[in-house]
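Please annotate the following for my students:
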Amino acid sequence: MKKTLLAEFTAREGAEAEVARLIGDYALKVREEEGNIAFDVYTRAANRRAFWIFEVYRDEDAFQAHLKAPYGAPFNAALVPLIEEDASVLTFLDPLTTNP
């Protein structure tokens, strides 16, 4: 079964451009992972400091491989001082319906 989640965080005032650059570079790497299906980055229209990342992985194993990727920890270490939260807030999603 696919592993789907929404990651959310808010850039600190004045850090929006740096956060956008970091997440853009990170997205390029994640999208190359064998088990990644989607890694789509959004900002809230009414608040450009609010970032939402919609992620889909082939299955739990692919998600675990993503978590172990060597570029994940450096990305998170660079991101944390630039955001208001202690870390990205993760919401795991289950499909209401399935596609054939």
The helical segments are 16-31, 60-67, 72-79. The beta strands are 3-10, 36-44, 47-57, 89-93. The mean pLDDT is 96.
